[in-house]
Amino acid sequence: MDLHDLNEFDGKSHPPLKEDPGEFKASEDAGPRRQRRSERGILVTLRRWLRRPWLVMLGVALVVVAGVGIWAMAWRSAGESAEAVAIGEEPVLSPEEVAAAMLPEQVAEAFLAAESLEERLKWTRDGEAVRGLMEGEGVAEAVAVYPLTWTELKFMGVARTKTQAFDMFQAVLEDGSSRLVAVVDLDEGPRVDWAAFARYQPESWESIMGNGAREEPVSVRAFVELSDYYNYEYADEEEWTCYKITSPDLEGRLFGYGRRGEKWDDDLRAFLKMMTPAGGRPRLQRVVMELEVGEDLAERGQVRIKEVGQFGWVEERAAREF
Q1: What is the DSSP pairing of strand 240-246 with strand 302-311?
Q2: Is 116 strand, coil or helix?
Q3: Burial (CB count <10 Å: 0-12, 13-18, 19+), residue 46
Q4: Mean pLDDT of each 10-residue bin along the chain, 322 residues long
Q5: Are residues 286 and 270 in contact, defined by beta-carbon separation less than 8 angstroms?
Q6: From CA 131, how far away is CA 101, in angstroms rounded?
Q7: pTM value?
């Protein structure tokens, strides 16, 4: 059915229907007119605000306050999130890591305050290796006490060798005696050298002095200093160097002799002179040495020094290269 048929449908003649181009035109122009009216509205509003400056300032203030509030909330939220992450990721240190981070003085105190052999071993250099020595019969009763009570722990300085360094403390025990607490810097953390603390030697001074001559040299930890007692078979000062030997574990003193020209004797004399302050009194120095014990030791108090193993009581072993 076309337009002509519609015109004649009711039996009457009607003029032909015409498309109204104006209707479509009006519909097409409606969008741009609305946009122009919106733009005019914005301009009118801005003119009204500009006639009232206080409104402008109020608006700016509101924007600023809102911005600050949003920033504060965001900052607080970020801070709480960061704190939560930090708390959640906080590392838990193992006992070994805690021990490795301790200061030398703290380790010295923990060593002394140990309430059992097992606990003291934790703070001892090569603990398992010296366990047998710590449990042995020859150990002085003074050091086999758990815990040890001390009245003072005095820092004496830091000693450094080619292969290791250690902090030295003097522990004054409850009975008034003193002990060297040498805290060695190791890869696993600071540890106390037990042999130096105990002044360990395979045979006690009492046994050395009372059992006569020996076929093999005996090893001792002692203090030495240069002396001038030349007598009996050691009367020739050109042939011998005289040293006075003392120890807190030895009653009295001994005179030890080294043959001049032997390397250890030259080194020891040089070491003692180097450690003597200019114009000052010679200082006692700790050494580990081997003695040749004869029959007249107890009577004359004289002994031949066979060898000086090391200067100081802390065993020289590779610990940390410098």
Answers
A1: unpaired
A2: coil
A3: exposed
A4: 41 43 43 53 55 59 60 57 50 72 94 96 93 81 90 94 90 94 93 95 92 92 96 95 96 96 95 85 91 89 94 73 34
A5: no
A6: 24
A7: 0.69
